[in-house]
Design a protein that fits this description.
alpha/beta; 7-stranded mixed beta sheet; 9 helices; 14 strands
Length: 299
């Protein structure tokens, strides 16, 4: 296979991508920030339901994959011949080195330390010698492998609070369960019954499979599965849906129980506190890499 590498301003990214895929029959097209890892790099953020500050980067690198060198060369020639493509530049036309993609993917996921005793370990790794509690989890379609700070902070809270609180965790709710990693973590730390819910059926399937692989029992389903009050409610989503879900999540917290929220940037702390103020007084419990863990206890 051969890779055609192009440089384009923001205005050309969409038409060039469409031409490559629809007319020139590229096998794939990826778009990257041409200024990545430089002082000119600009991150693009947009929460669900909210537009990003900008639709694209000032300059982008497009990488198109073709089966043969001739196809890649013809695509470059045809694109450069277009009147609208005067600012398009060819950076490279090069063969793609064959790789063992399974091994390459696996090499990117190593055991993740939550606490000294508690680790997340992919199936192809041996647990570290010091690990006493282990979640076996491989990367999949559902969010939650333990590599993101929000997941690590939630699991760290569970592990650190379990010695004092787990005796009261007769039932736990993981709202927006993704891979089920928080539900599994709660079960491993003493929760007797765990409900894990998500709006995505694929996440429900992933949670059930991951729970079985870890030898724990988790009830997983769509959001209507969550019924009644729980001594512990966990939700690792994002700030906007967390604000919308405030009355629902608070309503599931039993008197004396705890609510733990993640997926929140440091600058969003006051927004979340304001949204939850009618029900619970949120406080920052932990922080890591610009993300925070927030929580409250019901009186």
């Amino acid at each position: 296979m051969f890779e055609l590498v192009l440089s384009a301003p923001e205005t050309l990214v969409e038409p060039v991508s469409e031409a490559l895929m629809n007319e020139l029959e590229a096998l794939s097209v990826s778009v990257e920030d041409a200024d990545a890892d430089t002082d000119a790099e600009k991150a693009l953020f947009g929460e669900p339901g909210m537009p990003a500050a900008r639709p694209g980067w000032n300059r982008s690198t497009l990488k198109a994959l073709f089966q043969t060198e001739e196809e890649a060369s013809q695509a470059a020639t045809l694109l450069l011949a277009q009147e609208w493509a005067t600012e398009l530049q060819v950076q490279a036309l090069q063969p793609v080195v064959e790789q063992d993609w399974v091994r390459l993917t696996q090499s990117q996921f190593s055991p993740v330390e939550i606490t000294e005793r508690f680790w997340i370990v992919p199936s192809w790794h041996e647990p570290p010698a010091q690990a006493r509690e282990v979640i076996r989890l491989d990367p999949g379609l559902a969010f939650g492998t333990g590599t993101h700070p929000t997941t690590r902070m939630c699991l760290r809270w569970i592990a650190r609070q379990a010695p004092a609180l787990a005796a009261g965790w007769d039932r736990v709710l993981d709202y927006g369960c993704g891979s089920g990693i928080l539900a599994i973590g709660a079960a491993l730390h003493g929760a007797r019954a765990v409900d894990a819910v998500d709006i995505d059926p694929a996440a429900v399937e992933s949670t059930l499979a991951n729970a079985q692989a870890n030898g724990v029992t988790v009830q997983a389903g769509l959001p209507e599965l969550a019924q009644g009050e729980y001594p512990l409610v966990l939700a690792n989503i994002l700030a906007t849906p967390l604000k919308l879900l405030a009355p629902l999540l608070c309503g599931h917290v039993r008197p004396g129980g705890h609510l733990v929220l993640a997926g929140i940037l440091e600058r969003q702390a006051e927004e979340l506190q304001g949204a939850y103020a009618p029900w619970l007084p949120l406080q920052v419990l932990d922080s890591e890499d610009g993300w925070i863990l927030m929580g409250a206890a019901r009186a």
